[in-house]
Automatic annotation (TrEMBL):
<keyword id="KW-0406">Ion transport</keyword>
<protein>
    <recommendedName>
        <fullName>Cation/H+ exchanger domain-containing protein</fullName>
    </recommendedName>
</protein>
<feature type="domain" description="Cation/H(+) antiporter C-terminal">
    <location>
        <begin position="612"/>
        <end position="770"/>
    </location>
</feature>
<dbReference type="GO" id="GO:0015297">
    <property type="term" value="F:antiporter activity"/>
</dbReference>
<dbReference type="InterPro" id="IPR050794">
    <property type="entry name" value="CPA2_transporter"/>
</dbReference>
<dbReference type="InterPro" id="IPR057290">
    <property type="entry name" value="CHX17_C"/>
</dbReference>
<dbReference type="GO" id="GO:1902600">
    <property type="term" value="P:proton transmembrane transport"/>
</dbReference>
<dbReference type="InterPro" id="IPR057291">
    <property type="entry name" value="CHX17_2nd"/>
</dbReference>
<dbReference type="InterPro" id="IPR006153">
    <property type="entry name" value="Cation/H_exchanger_TM"/>
</dbReference>
<keyword id="KW-0472">Membrane</keyword>
<dbReference type="Pfam" id="PF23259">
    <property type="entry name" value="CHX17_C"/>
</dbReference>
<keyword id="KW-0633">Potassium transport</keyword>
<dbReference type="InterPro" id="IPR038770">
    <property type="entry name" value="Na+/solute_symporter_sf"/>
</dbReference>
<feature type="transmembrane region" description="Helical">
    <location>
        <begin position="174"/>
        <end position="197"/>
    </location>
</feature>
<feature type="transmembrane region" description="Helical">
    <location>
        <begin position="111"/>
        <end position="131"/>
    </location>
</feature>
<keyword id="KW-0630">Potassium</keyword>
<dbReference type="GO" id="GO:0006813">
    <property type="term" value="P:potassium ion transport"/>
</dbReference>
Length: 787
């Protein structure tokens, strides 16, 4: 066997081919690594992915060695890859759009989007012709540029809003919806405009009118097929491949082939393949297993493979060597392009905000966010250069301007969060931190006259000493139905209405009469005020929280959504009131108590001369238990109440287990800090109430949650009321695992056991949660409202 001839031309070509492929593959992976590293470095500044990708693309694409890699054939191949990737990108973008919004009355988000687009389009159309973006005035370029500047990159904006965790807020939802509207309308206008002003590499030999007619007919046929035929095929494939079963390969191939066929209909007559994919996508079904599969696979392909190549191509085409930084016109075009995109949007959103009643800072922020541009706008900037419409310098200016429209967006989101925090409840009152010289204010909710006796007895045991006393805001919680809304009479003052519904007025009069009778006999140290929370269940929690904040209450007491039947068991409960309770627990500016009434209201009168009510408070650990203990301190002041404090302690042999309870990770420092606070709180309570014999004390040494459960069961029937904390414990071994089988998580593990159907029918339970700073935004709920 002879050795391979080194002079063999086939061997040389193969070696050169492998070398070129290796260089390109290495360049791809280098681009991926650099994009990820840069994104990691920019993460503290909350910059979106496109920022780091654009920066790396401009940097790497302008290296001399990179320009040496790409000869004419390689650059052409790269352009083919980019075009295919953009077809996929625009197809997915189209699927996620709803074309039928054009036939609906404009909503708030649509009005904001249209106003921003219109103002930007007018501003761009009036200014850009004088900035010499092209050597001579071209109507098609001016219209396309104005439309692109008035657009919004909805995928970039949506990802930015959701990554900053404000997507559930009212302004977040408005921004996302307005961005979708703006992106849809602008891309639709560009697609329609392409029919009148097509871009062709080679002349077709036909008149412009004939070209436009052919593309219009082809696009109409494509739209009809996508809107009418595709649902039939897609629904058939979805029905043949239900969720949970592997999708048949033949059906998948059929569906994908049909989508490709639809996308290519109008391209036969010269319509842009990229815009054709978008037009086909907007009329294809967005729901169903096939559509979701296509969207997920294409998005994965784009994020892992296409985007690094896309931004490398962008940097390669935006050649800094032809940027012409020495000319003032270059900088004027750059800054004015950015100003048009931002000022135009801001002007439109501020004007629409005036019509819709938005505050101007929020309207201003809306405009800045809606000026965000993205991948499609970058592609248009480069495509205009490759088509010979604009110079490389102008194309680079456009790319840099697009980059700056994204950079400022995280700062705008941070500003929105900052303003929302300022408008969030500023006082977080807890009974533990309350000044002893000030009266305690409690918002006490009732569902109807049946809750009045319980509310009165609760007020009696909570009154404490006559000085400083207690203020009770007895609040009727009534659902606003259509029938009640029809009877409302608006008052002379703004935001005041009078309820004339007979059932509501009679119910309120009964509650007021019972409460007033109690006050007439027990006025010493007790102030009573009647309030009304009249709203749908969806907004009742917000009304209660606003009342609590305005009144600076320390505690909100809400009735449990389940009621006791005649046989002593609890019914299934009212889902509306359960929703309200959960939302108040989440958003309240003060402590919240859920009162499970099982006979507390049946006590005719709690005497102040002899013991008539046995009450217990269970103390394990955590902030909620400390708050429950603080409330129990007020109950201990009542001479007719015999209070027993029961402390659950972990056996010494279980201390180590408590630190590795279950599979939970335990922060030892946090646990030790909580234990220190528990000991300090309990020592103060013990010295003030237990040491003098006013309150009975009992200890239970337990090893695990099973012993906790059995101990709770042993308390059955011994007390008329048991006060417990909802949670807030740092992985206590005494409650680990109890959350797994809770029927009502809003009551916490201990409260859920005590209020269970198999527990005593004569023991009421008060579950207390201290003010809770929750959500994903460090003290601000992720569904905050600011508009």
């Amino acid at each position: 066997m002879s050795d391979t001839n080194p002079d063999d031309p086939c061997s040389g070509k193969l070696s050169a081919l492998f070398t070129r492929v290796a260089k390109h593959v290495f360049g791809f992976f280098l681009m991926v690594v650099l994009c990820n590293v840069t994104h990691y470095l920019l993460r503290p500044f909350s910059q979106p992915r496109i920022t780091s990708d654009t920066f790396v693309g401009l940097l790497i694409g302008n290296l001399r060695i990179v320009h040496g890699f790409f000869d004419i054939s390689a650059a052409q191949t790269l352009r083919f890859i980019i075009d295919f990737g953009m077809i996929c990108y625009m197809f997915v973008l189209g699927i996620e759009m709803d074309p039928y919004v054009l036939f609906k009355l404009p909503t708030k988000d649509a009005i904001v989007a249209y106003a921003g687009m219109l103002s930007t389009f007018i501003l761009a159309g009036a200014i850009t012709p004088f900035l010499n973006y092209t050597q001579e005035f071209k109507m098609n370029f001016t219209l396309t540029l104005s439309t692109a500047l008035s657009s919004t990159a909805s995928p970039v904006l949506t990802r930015l809003i959701t990554s900053h965790k404000i997507g559930k807020s009212d302004i977040g939802q408005l921004v996302i919806a307005a961005g979708m509207h703006s992106d849809f309308i602008s891309t639709l206008l560009i697609s329609i405009g392409y029919i009148a002003y097509p871009i062709r590499e080679k002349p077709s030999g036909k008149s412009r009118l004939q070209d436009s007619m052919e593309m219009t007919i082809a696009l109409v046929i494509q739209t009809v097929i996508a809107a009418k035929v595709s649902p039939i095929i897609m629904n058939w494939v979805n029905n043949e491949n239900p969720e949970g079963k592997p999708m048949k390969g033949s059906h998948l191939v059929l569906a994908v082939a049909f989508m490709a066929l639809v996308c290519s209909c109008s391209t036969v007559y010269g319509f842009s393949p990229i815009l054709s994919a978008f037009m086909a996508g907007i009329f294809l079904p967005s729901e169903g297993r096939v559509s979701k599969w296509v969207i997920s696979k294409i998005n994965y392909l784009l994020s892992t493979i296409f985007y690094p190549i896309f931004f490398l191509w962008m940097g390669f085409e935006a050649d800094f060597r032809e940027f012409e930084p020495g000319q003032m016109g270059t900088w004027a075009r750059l800054f004015l392009l950015f100003l048009i995109a931002t000022v135009g949007k801001v002007a439109g959103t501020v004007l629409s905000g005036v019509l819709l009643g938005f505050r101007w800072p929020e309207s201003f922020a809306l405009g800045l966010l809606l000026s965000t541009k993205g991948h499609f706008q970058i592609y248009l900037a480069i495509a205009a250069k490759t088509a010979g419409t604009i110079s490389t310098s102008t194309s680079t200016v456009m790319v840099i301007a697009i980059f700056f429209t994204v950079v400022h967006a995280p700062s705008v989101v941070a500003y929105i969060i900052k303003r929302a925090r300022k408008r969030a409840p500023t006082h977080r009152i807890a009974l533990q931190s309350l000044d002893p010289s000030k009266e305690v204010r409690i918002l006490l909710g009732v569902h109807g006259p049946q809750d009045a006796p319980t509310a009165i007895n609760f007020t009696e045991i909570s009154r404490g000493t006559a000085d400083p006393g207690i203020a009770i805001y007895l609040t009727d919680m009534i659902e606003l139905t259509d029938n009640i809304a029809a009877t409302l009479v608006r008052g002379d003052e703004e935001d005041t209405v009078t309820v004339t519904d007979q059932s509501v007025t009679e119910m309120r009069e009964q509650v007021t009469a019972a409460a007033q009778a109690y006050i007439d006999q027990n006025s010493d140290g007790v102030k009573l005020r009647r309030l009304l929370a009249l709203s749908p269940f969806s907004g009742m929690s917000q009304d209660i929280c606003i009342l609590a904040e305005d009144l600076m209450t320390a505690l909100i007491i809400l009735p449990f959504h389940k009621r006791q039947r005649a046989d002593g068991t609890l019914d299934a409960g009212h889902p509306g009131f359960r929703y309200v309770n959960r939302k108040v627990l989440r958003n309240a500016p003060c402590s919240v108590g859920i009162l499970v009434d099982r006979g507390l209201g049946l006590v005719e009168k709690i005497s102040r001369s002899y013991t008539s009510l046995n009450v217990a408070v269970i103390f394990i650990s955590g902030k909620d238990d400390r708050e429950a203990l603080a409330y129990a301190g007020r109950v201990a002041c009542h001479p007719g109440v015999k209070l027993t404090v029961i402390r659950f302690l972990v056996e010494n042999s279980s201390e180590n287990a408590s630190r590795r309870a279950g599979n939970h990770r335990v922060n030892v420092a946090e646990q030790e800090e909580e234990m220190k606070l528990d000991d300090e709180c309990f020592a103060e309570f013990y010295e003030r109430h237990v040491a003098g014999g006013q309150v009975a004390y009992m200890e239970k040494h337990l090893a695990n949650s099973a012993e906790t459960y059995s101990t709770l069961r042993s308390l059955e029937g011994q007390y008329a009321l048991i006060i417990v904390g909802r949670g807030g414990r740092v992985n206590s071994v005494l409650t680990v695992g109890m959350n797994d089988w809770q029927q009502c998580p809003e009551l916490g593990p201990i409260g859920d056991v005590l209020s269970g159907s198999d527990f005593s029918v004569k023991t009421s339970v008060l579950i207390i949660q201290t003010n809770n700073v929750r959500g994903e935004l460090d003290g601000l709920d992720d569904d905050f409202s600011i508009m």
